[in-house]
Amino acid sequence: MTSTASPREEWGTSLERYRERAVAVLEAHVPATGRCAECGDAWPCDRACCAEFVLEL
Ligand SMILES: [Zn+2]
Q1: Cβ neighbours of residue 34 under 8 Å, at least 6 residues apart?
Q2: Cα 33 to ligand 1 centroid, rounded to whole Å
Q3: How far does the centroid of ligand 1 lie from the alpha carbon of residue 32, in Å?
Q4: Banded pLDDT at 33 (limits 50, 70, 90)
Q5: What is the pLDDT of residues 7-29, one digit of tens each?
Q6: Using an 8 Å Cβ cutoff, are 37 and 31 in contact?
Q7: Which residues surround ligand 1, an ion (CB under 5 A)?
Q8: 54 within domain boundaries
Q9: Is 23 within the bounds of a domain?
Q10: Region 38-43 average pLDDT
């Protein structure tokens, strides 16, 4: 973070970070025989749903 960044630019950076994490979550949380391969919850699991929501923004 730089001192010259405007609030808008800071938000854009935060959003970019959220998206990167969401992509990582979606790569780990994949369906496996009706369940999530990562956390074992019924597919789609909460974390995958949250990640999808973030990517919709
Ligand atoms: Zn999961």
Answers
A1: 42, 43
A2: 13
A3: 10
A4: very high
A5: 888 989 998 999 999 999 999 99
A6: yes
A7: 29, 36, 38-39, 45, 47
A8: yes
A9: no
A10: 96
Q: At what angle do helices 7-28 and 46-56 cross, to 10 degrees?
A: 140
Q: Give me ligand 1 centre to Cα 28, in Å.
A: 8
Residue 13 belongs to some domain of the structure: no
Instruction: Give the pLDDT confidence score for residue 6 in this predicted structure.
Output: 86
- Span from the CA of 31 to the centroid of ligand 1 (angstroms): 8
Tally of domains in the chain: 1
Let me know if residue 15 belongs to a domain.
Answer: no
Per the confidence metrics, is the pTM higher than 0.85?
Answer: no
Task: Enumerate residues 6+ apart whose C-beta is below 8 A from 12.
Answer: none
Task: Find the domain containing 46 and state its range.
Answer: 30-57
